[in-house]
Amino acid sequence: MAGWTVHTGTAVALPLANVDTDQLIPARFMSAPRSEGYGSFLLHDTRRDEDGALRPDFPLNRHPEANIMITRENFGSGSSREAAVYALIDAGFRAVIAPAFGDIFASNAVNNGLLPARLTPEACAQIEQMLGDGTAQARIDLDQSTLTIGAQDFAFDLDASWRIKLINGWDDIDLTRQHAAQIAQFRNNRSQAAPWAWPGEVD
Amino acid sequence: MTAAPRTLLDKLWAAHEILRREDGVSLLWVDRHLVHEGSHHAFAKLAARGLPVAEPDLTFAVVDHYAPTRARAQTADPQVRRMIETLRRNAQDHGLRLFDLMDPGQGIVHVIAPEQGLTLPGLLINCGDSHTSTHGAFGALGFGIGATEVAHVLATQTVWQRKPKAMRITVEGTLGPSVTAKDMALHWISQLGTGGAQGHAVEYAGSAVRGLSMEGRMTLCNLSIEGGARFGMVAPDGVTFDYLAGRAHAPSGDAWDRACEDWAKLASDPQASFDNEVVIDAAQIAPTVTWGTSPDQALPVSAQIPDPGRIDPAKADAARAALDYMGLKPGQALQGTPIDQVFIGSCTNGRIEDLRAAAAVLAGRKAQVPGMVSPGSAQVKSQAEAEGLDRIFTEAGLDWVESGCSMCVGMNGDLVARDKRCASSTNRNFRGRQGPGARTHLMSPAMVAAAAVTGTITDVRPLLSGRHP
């Protein structure tokens, strides 16, 4: 995963609350290998009408070039499917800005270089209004934790460890393997302090 | 000097913390890692690095999300077959115990792990599934993770995690007749919202929680994620130990005694403080039903569907959109809403006690609509058959099928058709969850049975008067 510090792109508003991960990617698409690309699955059913045609008034259909999403409360709630993040990334998104995120979605996002930035509901509503059903150029600076649209700066909330991870693009497995000796020591201690923590043999 | 009082979360966290980085994020030891067909992305990540599974003896695989519930010996759908084959190959390559389709231990991951005694108090349990909070019912740290984290656990048997804040939901008093753990969960989520416990680990306490069976505690903890909490837990007690004694992988003999001694210490200290405390009166909880497309859009069955124009303006848009999707009108009584079909099953409500509760309503009655009953595991299935519950379901006109995630998520092809209304004992009423355009009403298994018998959303209580639930 490549790290990033500044992203300049196109912001679009998705004025919906509770966009859960079942909406972000319906379950029937999740058996595809990632190499096939998940972008076309993003909000697959939400952006289509009953006959399967793309709804022309849906923001992402109107502005397929957008790569920063401003949305409402409780984005990414529900299932732990990381495929929801793959769909956003493969559709070109680098950041989602919302008042609150599902906890598992947010950590999945950071693990894939997608920024889940929190702004107050008021600030999100203000940006939503600025964007209307159009788009605007926007700039995200992870060093400063700011989102700039037009002349306005918005300071967003982001866990400090997540900020560093997004910037460095660190891979956790490499990082953890540096602690191999400590992990082995812990395992050994635990097997003595809590021998019951290992599964009993089945007769 | 005495040690500062600690919460159950503090104790479990400390027992698993290998190290804590300067930024406050902990590296935790994982005692059990449960994988399923959906874990294919994680195995692919592992393969890309050429890494082995670090602890195959602590890793258990099960076919559940895509498990066919009918004619499973000759699965026709090539996509389903491929998903199951991939899990088989990964389990074989890495030497993992696999609970395969025909295994007598097969079932939904959050049903079988407790059943097999793989879930124990004091453990840290991960699975690439948000309902892993279920295992917290035993006084364990159980939480769902994404594919990158699954790959990390496979490779290292550890997980990085910032300690959540501690929240306690205390339910005091006695639940009314036919009011269940499901109603308790939908009640608190409707009060606090789907983000009500975000960033928190919820400990459930109080006499009404103590009074629940393990099945009920699992239902309660299972639904924690629908209120935003990645963790839900109940301190272990005699009910927990009685459930676990003699289970296949549980400790036995001296090891059992020692384990019980250790587990008895797993409770929040009396003076421990929580970041957030909520107290609920059990007597105020009614049989609860969702009316919208988010689990917090739930009301007592006797209520009327809310008018978006008269509720909190911040929730009005979402309510309007939900009613439009659900095909419901403001002010209409929830009770009497006609349904098209029913589903009983899932990791939330597919256990033996759930099937007994539904059967108590259905016995000697006919379902007015079609429906499916999918037991949570092969063991639950044979237990139910030994008790004759399967006959009650089939004589009522419902289909009795094999175990799996089934119509809760529809990955195996068990779907609700567009615009059809389903009374469901599952966990998510999200748009499209049970199929594109499907309309889901969440409720307890007994309430689903009542809906089946009347063909409408119905209060189960009058149907049970004079019967033993």
TrEMBL record, chain A:
<dbReference type="GO" id="GO:0003861">
    <property type="term" value="F:3-isopropylmalate dehydratase activity"/>
</dbReference>
<keyword id="KW-0100">Branched-chain amino acid biosynthesis</keyword>
<dbReference type="InterPro" id="IPR015928">
    <property type="entry name" value="Aconitase/3IPM_dehydase_swvl"/>
</dbReference>
<comment type="function">
    <text>Catalyzes the isomerization between 2-isopropylmalate and 3-isopropylmalate, via the formation of 2-isopropylmaleate.</text>
</comment>
<dbReference type="InterPro" id="IPR033940">
    <property type="entry name" value="IPMI_Swivel"/>
</dbReference>
<comment type="similarity">
    <text>Belongs to the LeuD family. LeuD type 1 subfamily.</text>
</comment>
<dbReference type="GO" id="GO:0009316">
    <property type="term" value="C:3-isopropylmalate dehydratase complex"/>
</dbReference>
<keyword id="KW-0432">Leucine biosynthesis</keyword>
<keyword id="KW-0028">Amino-acid biosynthesis</keyword>
<comment type="pathway">
    <text>Amino-acid biosynthesis; L-leucine biosynthesis; L-leucine from 3-methyl-2-oxobutanoate: step 2/4.</text>
</comment>
<dbReference type="Pfam" id="PF00694">
    <property type="entry name" value="Aconitase_C"/>
</dbReference>
<comment type="subunit">
    <text>Heterodimer of LeuC and LeuD.</text>
</comment>
<protein>
    <recommendedName>
        <fullName>3-isopropylmalate dehydratase</fullName>
        <ecNumber>4.2.1.33</ecNumber>
    </recommendedName>
</protein>
<dbReference type="InterPro" id="IPR050075">
    <property type="entry name" value="LeuD"/>
</dbReference>
<dbReference type="InterPro" id="IPR004431">
    <property type="entry name" value="3-IsopropMal_deHydase_ssu"/>
</dbReference>
<dbReference type="InterPro" id="IPR000573">
    <property type="entry name" value="AconitaseA/IPMdHydase_ssu_swvl"/>
</dbReference>
<feature type="domain" description="Aconitase A/isopropylmalate dehydratase small subunit swivel">
    <location>
        <begin position="4"/>
        <end position="120"/>
    </location>
</feature>
<dbReference type="GO" id="GO:0009098">
    <property type="term" value="P:L-leucine biosynthetic process"/>
</dbReference>
<keyword id="KW-0456">Lyase</keyword>
Automatic annotation (TrEMBL), chain B:
<keyword id="KW-0028">Amino-acid biosynthesis</keyword>
<feature type="binding site">
    <location>
        <position position="408"/>
    </location>
    <ligand>
        <name>[4Fe-4S] cluster</name>
    </ligand>
</feature>
<dbReference type="InterPro" id="IPR036008">
    <property type="entry name" value="Aconitase_4Fe-4S_dom"/>
</dbReference>
<dbReference type="GO" id="GO:0046872">
    <property type="term" value="F:metal ion binding"/>
</dbReference>
<dbReference type="InterPro" id="IPR018136">
    <property type="entry name" value="Aconitase_4Fe-4S_BS"/>
</dbReference>
<keyword id="KW-0100">Branched-chain amino acid biosynthesis</keyword>
<keyword id="KW-0408">Iron</keyword>
<comment type="function">
    <text>Catalyzes the isomerization between 2-isopropylmalate and 3-isopropylmalate, via the formation of 2-isopropylmaleate.</text>
</comment>
<dbReference type="InterPro" id="IPR015931">
    <property type="entry name" value="Acnase/IPM_dHydase_lsu_aba_1/3"/>
</dbReference>
<dbReference type="InterPro" id="IPR004430">
    <property type="entry name" value="3-IsopropMal_deHydase_lsu"/>
</dbReference>
<keyword id="KW-0004">4Fe-4S</keyword>
<comment type="pathway">
    <text>Amino-acid biosynthesis; L-leucine biosynthesis; L-leucine from 3-methyl-2-oxobutanoate: step 2/4.</text>
</comment>
<keyword id="KW-0432">Leucine biosynthesis</keyword>
<comment type="subunit">
    <text>Heterodimer of LeuC and LeuD.</text>
</comment>
<dbReference type="GO" id="GO:0003861">
    <property type="term" value="F:3-isopropylmalate dehydratase activity"/>
</dbReference>
<feature type="binding site">
    <location>
        <position position="405"/>
    </location>
    <ligand>
        <name>[4Fe-4S] cluster</name>
    </ligand>
</feature>
<comment type="similarity">
    <text>Belongs to the aconitase/IPM isomerase family. LeuC type 1 subfamily.</text>
</comment>
<keyword id="KW-0479">Metal-binding</keyword>
<feature type="binding site">
    <location>
        <position position="347"/>
    </location>
    <ligand>
        <name>[4Fe-4S] cluster</name>
    </ligand>
</feature>
<dbReference type="Pfam" id="PF00330">
    <property type="entry name" value="Aconitase"/>
</dbReference>
<keyword id="KW-0411">Iron-sulfur</keyword>
<dbReference type="InterPro" id="IPR001030">
    <property type="entry name" value="Acoase/IPM_deHydtase_lsu_aba"/>
</dbReference>
